[in-house]
Amino acid sequence: MSGTALWAAVLAGSLGCYLLKLAGLSVPAAWVEQPWVARIVDFVPAALLAALVAVQAVTSGHDLVLDGRLVGLAVAALALALRAPFIVVLVLAGAAGALVHVLTG
Amino acid sequence: MDTRRFSLAGVSSPTRTAVLRDAVGLGLAVGLYGVAFGAAADAAGLNTWQAMTMSLLMFTGASQFALVGVLGAGGSALAAVGSALLLGTRNTVYGVRLVPLLKPHGLRRFGTAHWVIDETTALSLAAPDREMSRLAFLASGATIYLLWNATTVVGSLGAAALGGTAQAALDAVVPAAFLALLWPRLRRSFPEAAVQRRVALGGAVVALALTPFVPPGVQVIAAVIAVALAGRPRRAS
């Protein structure tokens, strides 16, 4: 992707996110407190974040690719289940990914 | 650290000190996410200026991660911005809840809006009265804003300097960071955790199933739409 397109995404996304914040402080509460808005806010993050986890962990372009990323993800899940701090989770996932890279490299 | 805390607290109550301590403590913890964001932005092909601009102007972590996540998966700018905006709708609802506490009138509203995020909202709502809400909002907003921006630069520059094996480590860190953002929603203590889990599983399965057939990045948006259309999630009583 060109630098211009990246900048466009960065600036458009930033402006849009700011306007969403501003809207909350500006519009009547009744407009926002609708069931369908609540549904988006409650459940879209889970679907979106899970889709991103899956795509980032095991895809590359159009292909499914199994490599150190999936091992790192499994290690991260284990660390999260054991309530490890965020930074520990990331370090362990990174170490697992690097280890697989070295072993299979 | 202690000296600064007490001088900030001035002559006033322990409540004030506690509010400031919580705000600064949370700010420090959240700052660590900034390193991960800077690194993820670099992995997605954004340069340090672009990563910095996002943390300065967008300043809402999940949306920032989503935008670079979709770009990193090869997605279009439109799909990336769409993901960021979908996650950004949370902040609209937070704003509505904050209005009675912060009463941001006139031009102040435009400044206040920029700091309406998960953490500042949680701390403001948890504070015992309106004055403490304002203090919590300002203290956590300022701490997180400064640290988030500083650590974004560290993460971006750090990741840019990495070689082959370290790059493989970073590739494994990005999905782990998304999982860490998702994880609290899957815990039993989260409202409607069972529905959250089904929604998450559905999102992941649909995204993977579509990956071979749609332009990269589109599968993420499509997964969200598919899950949303799959029916009104049953409300737990």
Descriptive terms for the model:
heterodimer; A: 105 residues; mainly alpha; two-stranded antiparallel ribbon; 2 strands; 81% helix; 4% strand; extended; B: 237 residues
If you had to describe this structure to a student in words, what would you say it looks like?
- The complex is a heterodimer of chains A (105) and B (237).
- Chain A starts with a helix and ends with a helix.
- Chain A has 5 helices and 2 strands.
- Chain A is mainly alpha-helical.
- Among the domains of chain A are: 1-28; 66-105.
- The model of chain B is unreliable at 1-11 (pLDDT under 50).
How is the quaternary structure best described?
heterodimer
Q: Structural class of chain B, please?
A: mainly alpha
Principal-axes shape call of chain B = globular
Structural class call of chain A reads: mainly alpha
Write down the overall geometry of chain A.
extended
Low-pLDDT parts of chain B are: 1-11
Major β-sheet annotation of chain A: 2 strands, antiparallel
| Helical proportion of chain B, percent range | over 70%
Order of helices and strands of chain B: HHHHHHHHHHH
Q: Name the average pLDDT of chain B.
A: 86
> Could you spell the SSE succession of chain A in H and E letters?
HHHEEHH
Widest beta sheet: strand line-up of chain A: 1-2
Strand content of chain A: under 5%
Radius of gyration of chain A, rounded?
Answer: 19 Å
Query: What's the overall average pLDDT of chain A, rounded?
Result: 91
Helix count of chain B equals 11
Terminal CA distance of chain A reads 28 Å
| Quantity of strands of chain A, as a count | 2
Largest sheet of chain B: none
Rg result of chain B:
19 Å
Layout of helices and strands, plus pairs?
The complex is a heterodimer of chains A (105) and B (237).
Chain A: H1 3-26, H2 29-32, H3 35-58, E1 59-60, E2 63-64, H4 68-81, H5 86-104
Antiparallel strand pairs in A: 1-2
Helix pairs in contact in A: 4-5
Chain B: H1 2-9, H2 14-43, H3 48-58, H4 61-72, H5 77-102, H6 108-114, H7 118-126, H8 130-160, H9 164-186, H10 193-210, H11 218-229
